């Protein structure tokens, strides 16, 4: 039997402890915009998820109210965003700094440069350059930000 195809990624889902706090964070950090008509509600009308659109992400981001799951995900780095160049990464560093968003320094990765930012639930969001340098084994390590 032939393997069926995948059409792409429909959406990403992050468990969060507080919908409004996370919406505020992702709005500032990534320019996310809530799509109210896609809010998820229980039959009794209780709101339990926001759907966000982020320019150039290529898919939606769902923020789902689930405090217990969000607590267990602290320290995870579930997604790495692409940025074009090292200079763009430095601009992200400066932007995060100016907006009081916890973040790492710029690190040297295996083939490019990266940094990580922390969302309100302690999840680490990575940014990695498409610009490359020669493959190196002298890449940065940091137990907190990189898990190594």
From TrEMBL:
Signal peptide: none annotated. Pfam families: Glyoxalase. It comes from the Bacteria. Residues 8-130 form the VOC domain. This is VOC family protein. The lineage of its organism: Bacteria, Pseudomonadati, Pseudomonadota, Betaproteobacteria, Burkholderiales.
């Amino acid at each position: 039997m032939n393997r069926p195809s995948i059409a792409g990624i429909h959406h990403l889902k992050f468990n969060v402890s507080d919908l409004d706090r996370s919406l505020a964070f992702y709005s500032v950090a990534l320019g996310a915009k809530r799509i109210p008509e896609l809010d998820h509600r229980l039959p009794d009308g209780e709101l339990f998820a926001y759907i966000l659109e982020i320019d150039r992400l290529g898919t939606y981001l769902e923020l789902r109210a689930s405090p217990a799951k969000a607590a267990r995900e602290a320290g995870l780095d579930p997604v790495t965003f692409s940025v074009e160049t090292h200079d763009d990464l430095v601009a992200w560093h400066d932007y995060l700094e100016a907006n009081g968003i916890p973040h790492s320094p710029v690190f040297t990765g295996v083939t490019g440069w990266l940094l990580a930012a922390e969302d309100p639930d302690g999840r680490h969001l990575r940014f990695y350059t498409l610009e490359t340098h020669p493959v190196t084994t002298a890449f940065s390590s940091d137990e907190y930000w990189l898990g190594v």
